[in-house]
Amino acid sequence: MINNSAKYSKLIKDEAFRLGFMQCGIAKAEFLEEEAPRLEKWLNNNHHGQMGYMENHFDKRLDPRLLVEGAKSVISLSLNYYPDQQQSDPNAPKISKYAYGFDYHTVIKDKLFQLLNFISENIGEVNGRAFVDSAPVLDRAWAKKAGIGWIGKNSNLISKKSGSFFFLAELIIDLELEYDNAFETDHCGTCTKCIDACPTEAILSPFVIDAKKCISYLTIELREEIPTNFNDKMDNWMFGCDVCQDVCPWNRFSVPHSEPMFQPNENLLSMKREDWMDITEDVFKDIFKNSAVKRTKFKGLTRNIDFLKKTS
């Protein structure tokens, strides 16, 4: 007799790869016992800053069965976003690589819905939900449980095959599948390049980030003025930050993505420093029409640019 769990798992993974996902792993939907005390401690220490949503739905963050009734499996997926080109002016304010192209939320959600439809059409009626960085799901914990990689000292998930320049997403479904072995080995070893390179010393210790000091938080999440104690520490970043990934030795295995929607806007890459310093709202709307950078709005991006202007 054919093991349906194994057959269905292979079917799902094959379709995930066909849709362009880089890795696909499956874990049993259960309470994240190891994560509970870590998350509680991180919140109690106020390392989340103004990200109040991190305090919401604490139980749901730790138990996917509270998000999808009867959940049996968490399918973790990764999608490469590493670009083959970067901003041409080395003195221009910098944008994190993940935001070069079309907003990843839209791109990945579309792929996840296609995968959900495929499961329903080829396996039968399956209840499930798709998650992309927008609901109480601990992406990295599930990706680790699904065997995709380990959590590095910079708190990013790292894959031996491809480094860390990828997005994570999940399907939580009520179908029992064949589960992958969790990634138990930490391949960071004694390396501390990410900790040493962080311009604002946001990595307090291995695996512990104080978001309030993180440049990504300061340029995206923070709603008020950037504190003056970060003068000369922003490393010319105006949206996000890639420093801890750029220095990671495992990212020597990063290869350019093949997702057409992530192709960067040519104007974005060719803009000179002076163009950014004088950016208008019309230019902002044109360049970032379908970009994740829209999240900061014109006001937020110009606040960041003005901060860099004052401290350069």
Automatic annotation (TrEMBL):
Cob(II)alamin binds at R61, D133, N154, L157, L168, S216, C241, D242. It is an enzyme of class 1 (oxidoreductase). Pfam families: Fer4_16 (PF13484), QueG_DUF1730 (PF08331). Its EC number is 1.17.99.6. Residues 179-207 form the 4Fe-4S ferredoxin-type domain. PROSITE patterns: 4FE4S_FER_1 (PS00198), 4FE4S_FER_2 (PS51379). SUPFAM superfamilies: alpha-helical ferredoxin. Its cofactor is [4Fe-4S] cluster; cob(II)alamin. TRNA binds at K299. It catalyses: epoxyqueuosine(34) in tRNA + AH2 = queuosine(34) in tRNA + A + H2O. One of its GO terms (molecular function) is cobalamin binding. It is found in: Cytoplasm. [4Fe-4S] cluster 1 binds at C188, C191, C194, C248. The active site is at D133. Keywords: 4Fe-4S, Cobalamin, Cobalt, Cytoplasm, Iron, Iron-sulfur, Metal-binding, Oxidoreductase, Queuosine biosynthesis, tRNA processing. Pathway: tRNA modification; tRNA-queuosine biosynthesis. Binds 2 [4Fe-4S] clusters per monomer. [4Fe-4S] cluster 2 binds at C198, C214, C241, C244. It comes from the Bacteria. One of its GO terms (cellular component) is cytoplasm. Signal peptide: none annotated. Monomer. Catalyzes the conversion of epoxyqueuosine (oQ) to queuosine (Q), which is a hypermodified base found in the wobble positions of tRNA(Asp), tRNA(Asn), tRNA(His) and tRNA(Tyr). This is Epoxyqueuosine reductase. It comes from Pedobacter frigoris. The gene is queG.
